[in-house]
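R.M. (postdoc): so does anyone remember the format we settled on? I'll just put the C-alpha cells first.
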C-alpha cells in the first residue's frame, strides 16, 4: 500500500494550489506516521513578496491524510509555522 500512498500523496501535492505567485523551490521527503494515516513533508516556497524583499524561501508543512488504512487522500493542506492554512487542494480530493 505504500506505493499507492506515495503516488496519491505526490499527486495531491502536485495538484495543490499554493497561491498566486507562489513557487515550490524545494521539498523534503515524506514523514510518515506508522501506524497512521497522515504524512507530512516540508515544502520550501517563494513568492513575489519574499523575492522582492530578498527573504529567500519559507518552509511550510504540507500534510495529506488518507482514508483509514487505505490509499485515498481525503484531506491535503499547507500550513505555516503560525498555524495558518493557505492554498487549496485539487477538486479531486
Amino acid at each position: 500500500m505504500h506505493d499507492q500512498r506515495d503516488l496519491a500523496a505526490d499527486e495531491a501535492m502536485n495538484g495543490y494550489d499554493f497561491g498566486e505567485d507562489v513557487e515550490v523551490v524545494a521539498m523534503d521527503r515524506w514523514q510518515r506516521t506508522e501506524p497512521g494515516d497522515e504524512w507530512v513533508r516540508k515544502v520550501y516556497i517563494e513568492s513575489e513578496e519574499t523575492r522582492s524583499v530578498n527573504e529567500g524561501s519559507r518552509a511550510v508543512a504540507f500534510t495529506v491524510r488518507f482514508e483509514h488504512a487505505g490509499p485515498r487522500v481525503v484531506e491535503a493542506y499547507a500550513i505555516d509555522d503560525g498555524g495558518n492554512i493557505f492554498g487549496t487542494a485539487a477538486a479531486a480530493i
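R.M.: ...and that's the designed sequence above, right after the C-alpha cells. Also worth knowing: Strands lie at 22-27, 31-32, 38-47, 58-66, 73-79, 85-86. The radius of gyration is 14 Å.
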